[in-house]
Amino acid sequence: MAERCSNCITSYVFILFIWKMAALLKKRALAEFSMVLQEKPAKRLRIIKKVPSVTELDIDVLKSSSSGEALLFLLQVEEAIKGEVDALHLYNTLLDHFQKEREPAVRVKLVNILSQMVQGNLIEASTLFEDLQPLLKAETSHKVIAVFLATFHRIKNIDKDDKLHLHIFSLAKKYLSNRSHEVKCAALAVIGDFIALDDKSETFQKTLHLLADFSHDHEPRVRTEALNAL
């Protein structure tokens, strides 16, 4: 009986030993597998998309396209102007199409592209301002007006002509009476950045009072922009 118990204990110890060895081998195998994975980083694939140049795009297609087609085409133009471009032809075509386009979203995109052309030194900032002023005056969409003002705002970092800046500053003030908060915010952003040009103490004080008044506007975004401008 004692011998039988001894054999049982021996068998149990042997099984326990085998189980522990198996667990240890499994742990080592997992560790080695993990090291192999770390030593072989995943390959990164780079997808290269060929962007057509403006010369490859038929810009005159805008003359006969619908608003939806025009917007899709302008997305291509927006990418293409980063390369070589017949700036004058493109500029005149975009301006011409703007006056015929009825969809505000397309007009917004047109102004954005014109803004990018100025930032890319394809068109003079003063030329853009002069050409866009009558378009802004006739514009009825609040979103488009706000984009116009934002475009004029960017001119400050491109053209250092103080006289041009004063024109933009005065123009922005006129749009503070607009009922749209988007337009007011865009105008206030211009005023806040250009206010240093107002070196006449009387008008400077009036501008400060104007900003202070808008800091109490019912629209939170307008209040914030007015406070930022002060």
Account of the protein in words:
Helix content is 70%, strand content 0%. It is mainly alpha-helical and 230 residues long. Helix 8 packs parallel to helix 10. The chain is globular and about 80 Å long. The termini are far apart. This is Integrator complex subunit 4.
How would you summarize this macromolecular structure in one to three sentences?
This is Integrator complex subunit 4. This protein is mainly alpha-helical and 230 residues long.
Q: What best-fitting shape do the alpha-carbon axes yield?
A: globular
Q: Report the end-to-end length measured between terminal Cα atoms.
A: 100 Å
Task: List SSEs in N-to-C order.
Answer: HHHHHHHHHH
Summed over residues and divided by their number, the pLDDT gives a mean of 80
- Helical coverage, percent range: 55-70%
Q: Indicate the structural class.
A: mainly alpha
Main beta sheet strand tally, sense and closure: none
Number of helical stretches of at least 4 residues = 10
Secondary-structure topology with pairs:
Blueprint: H1 2-39, H2 67-80, H3 87-100, H4 104-119, H5 125-138, H6 142-154, H7 162-174, H8 181-194, H9 201-214, H10 220-229
Helix pairs in contact: 2-4, 3-4, 4-6, 6-8, 7-8, 8-10, 9-10
